[in-house]
Amino acid sequence: MITLVTGATRSGKSEWAELLAQRSQKSIIYIATASSKVDDPEWQNRLDDHRDRRPYDWQTWEVPIALAAALESAEASSYVLVDALGTWLANVLEQDQTTWQKTEQELIAAIKACEADITLVSEEVGWGVVPAYELGRRFRDRLGSLSRKIGVIADVVYLVTGGYAVDLTQIGERLPF
């Protein structure tokens, strides 16, 4: 089972994904794509908020880059929660287009092959202005495209906004890819 949870900043997408994981009643593997930055107190507070919400019995894997390999190593009896794709993408954003396409293909293949139930959290970044700088446009375009590709293979896609989770697979129609 592949689930994609997407939404804006502070919309509740991580909390919704965590609730889905808890409801599974399986052994949870929480894949954190963010790295600690001791010189950035605001970032550390964000990480602490996420860490404080997680039950003590969840396994936490810190995977800033090798996400495909981590998914390949998850046991079938587990429930994998990846939070979040945007942070992971930021960690590999400097890749040239050819390398990025290979990385993206490997991730999509690993998601499809993952025997565990998996929920991926992704930020919605394309609802604002076009970034004025190339790296910002690259981030927005790559994350938008990656989220769409995962949405196509996902069994369920939720949009979280204003504290509500909306099941897009129930009310929407999947676009051809």
UniProtKB/TrEMBL annotation:
<feature type="binding site">
    <location>
        <position position="83"/>
    </location>
    <ligand>
        <name>GTP</name>
    </ligand>
</feature>
<keyword id="KW-0067">ATP-binding</keyword>
<comment type="function">
    <text>Catalyzes ATP-dependent phosphorylation of adenosylcobinamide and addition of GMP to adenosylcobinamide phosphate.</text>
</comment>
<dbReference type="GO" id="GO:0005525">
    <property type="term" value="F:GTP binding"/>
</dbReference>
<dbReference type="GO" id="GO:0009236">
    <property type="term" value="P:cobalamin biosynthetic process"/>
</dbReference>
<dbReference type="InterPro" id="IPR003203">
    <property type="entry name" value="CobU/CobP"/>
</dbReference>
<keyword id="KW-0418">Kinase</keyword>
<comment type="similarity">
    <text>Belongs to the CobU/CobP family.</text>
</comment>
<keyword id="KW-0547">Nucleotide-binding</keyword>
<comment type="pathway">
    <text>Cofactor biosynthesis; adenosylcobalamin biosynthesis; adenosylcobalamin from cob(II)yrinate a,c-diamide: step 5/7.</text>
</comment>
<dbReference type="GO" id="GO:0005524">
    <property type="term" value="F:ATP binding"/>
</dbReference>
<dbReference type="InterPro" id="IPR027417">
    <property type="entry name" value="P-loop_NTPase"/>
</dbReference>
<dbReference type="GO" id="GO:0008820">
    <property type="term" value="F:cobinamide phosphate guanylyltransferase activity"/>
</dbReference>
<feature type="binding site">
    <location>
        <begin position="7"/>
        <end position="14"/>
    </location>
    <ligand>
        <name>GTP</name>
    </ligand>
</feature>
<keyword id="KW-0169">Cobalamin biosynthesis</keyword>
<dbReference type="Pfam" id="PF02283">
    <property type="entry name" value="CobU"/>
</dbReference>
<feature type="binding site">
    <location>
        <begin position="51"/>
        <end position="54"/>
    </location>
    <ligand>
        <name>GTP</name>
    </ligand>
</feature>
<keyword id="KW-0342">GTP-binding</keyword>
<keyword id="KW-0548">Nucleotidyltransferase</keyword>
<feature type="binding site">
    <location>
        <position position="62"/>
    </location>
    <ligand>
        <name>GTP</name>
    </ligand>
</feature>
<protein>
    <recommendedName>
        <fullName>Adenosylcobinamide kinase</fullName>
        <ecNumber>2.7.1.156</ecNumber>
        <ecNumber>2.7.7.62</ecNumber>
    </recommendedName>
</protein>
<feature type="active site" description="GMP-histidine intermediate">
    <location>
        <position position="50"/>
    </location>
</feature>
<keyword id="KW-0808">Transferase</keyword>
<dbReference type="GO" id="GO:0043752">
    <property type="term" value="F:adenosylcobinamide kinase activity"/>
</dbReference>
<feature type="binding site">
    <location>
        <begin position="32"/>
        <end position="34"/>
    </location>
    <ligand>
        <name>GTP</name>
    </ligand>
</feature>
<comment type="pathway">
    <text>Cofactor biosynthesis; adenosylcobalamin biosynthesis; adenosylcobalamin from cob(II)yrinate a,c-diamide: step 6/7.</text>
</comment>
